[in-house]
Amino acid sequence: MADCPLCQTSPHDLLWQDDFCRVVLLQDADYPAYCRIELLAHIKEMTDLPPAQRARTMKVVFAVETAIREVIQPDKINLASLGNKTPHLHWHVLPRFEGDRHFPNSHWGAPMRDSEAQPLTEAVRDALQRVVTERVKCALES
Amino acid sequence: MADCPLCQTSPHDLLWQDDFCRVVLLQDADYPAYCRIELLAHIKEMTDLPPAQRARTMKVVFAVETAIREVIQPDKINLASLGNKTPHLHWHVLPRFEGDRHFPNSHWGAPMRDSEAQPLTEAVRDALQRVVTERVKCALES
């Protein structure tokens, strides 16, 4: 759809993509390892997908969660698919730390403190891409 | 765990339960059909579960989404598993309407207007329980 930002080429750092979905690193200032899984097709709800594609989507989501946990060891993972503003299926995979800007609130909620987040180093960003790629490949083959 | 509220008997309206998880209606004043899927075991992250149990959890989540869409036809479904305050796996399945209190923001975000939500009628609540039960049973058998 012409007016849907997720139907365009992503402006974000692309970590992995196949013909079904892509994994991007949002380069969020407060949450430097914040990833998003975006379906390529303009589909609104998970239950608009047939069950096999729901399962495929979640395999990618959990592979990204696994990769993030392996590379940066967050205190908690937050998963969400809202789409109120952009009703094109996408999943937020957000590593949380106890000292992050909103913890323990949702990152959509009230801030609790100033952010002390630092951008990912190039080495960590590259490790994240490598491990995401490995974990997604493994998940989709299982 | 003694200090985990989700390790206790639920204070909410129980729609469905098996030996793995339960579905409760939160009776939220702003979001009367807000449901939560709660694992019975005290597990923190989806990727702490083996893949088959992740899939089982998501089948229940999507069955509840299907039931809510069938019974109340929301404008959007929001799915989330955060657990920052209660690190015991649970999924929020939240039907959203364009005129609800926070739309199009997250319901954890800034309110946009006063809520005009009305409690579910007994007939709708009972329909929701019936359809959740049917859809979950069907999903777990497939």
SSE inventory with pairings:
Two copies of one chain form a homodimer.
Chain A: E1 13-17, E2 21-25, E3 35-39, H1 51-72, E4 76-81, E5 90-96, H2 122-141
Antiparallel strand pairs in A: 1-2, 2-3, 3-5, 4-5
Helix pairs in contact in A: 1-2
Tag the structure with descriptive keywords.
HIT family protein (chains A, B), catalytic activity (chains A, B), 142 residues, homodimer, alpha+beta
Account of the 3D structure:
- 2 copies of one chain form a homodimer.
- By secondary structure, chain A is α+β, with helices and mostly antiparallel strands.
- The first copy, chain A, has one domain: 2-Layer Sandwich (HIT family, subunit A).
- Chain A contains 2 helices and 5 strands.
- Chain A has helices spanning 51-72, 122-141, and strands at residues 13-17, 21-25, 35-39, 76-81, 90-96.
- The first copy, chain A, has a 5-stranded antiparallel sheet, with helices on one face.
- In chain A, a hairpin with a 3-residue loop joins strand 1 (13-17) and strand 2.
- In chain A, helix 1 runs antiparallel to helix 2 (122-141).
- The first copy, chain A, is globular.
- The A-B interface holds A 44-47, 51, 54-55, 58, 62, 65-66, 69, 76-85, 87, 96, 103-106, 108-109, 142 and B 44-47, 51, 54-55, 58, 62, 65-66, 69, 76-85, 87, 96, 103-106, 108-109, 142.
- Strand 4 (76-81) of chain A pairs antiparallel with strand 4 of chain B, so a sheet runs across the interface.
